[in-house]
C-alpha cells in the first residue's frame, strides 16, 4: 500500500551546461509535514518546480 503524497527518485536538472541537481531522492508520507531546507542557490526551488 502506497502512503506517499510525494515520491521523487533520481531528480536531475540542468541550466544550459550547468547541472544543478543530480540524483535527488525523497518521499513525503501523507499527512506529514515536510520542509526542504538549504542555502541560497542550493537547488531548493528547482527541486520543487
From TrEMBL:
Signal sequence interval, chain numbering: none
Coiled-coil ranges per UniProt: none
A GO MF term: hydrolase activity
Keyword vocabulary terms for this entry: ATP-binding, Hydrolase, Nucleotide-binding, Transport
Gene3D superfamilies in the cross-refs: P-loop containing nucleotide triphosphate hydrolases (3.40.50.300)
Entry similarity comment: Belongs to the ABC transporter superfamily.
Protein name: Nucleoside triphosphate hydrolase
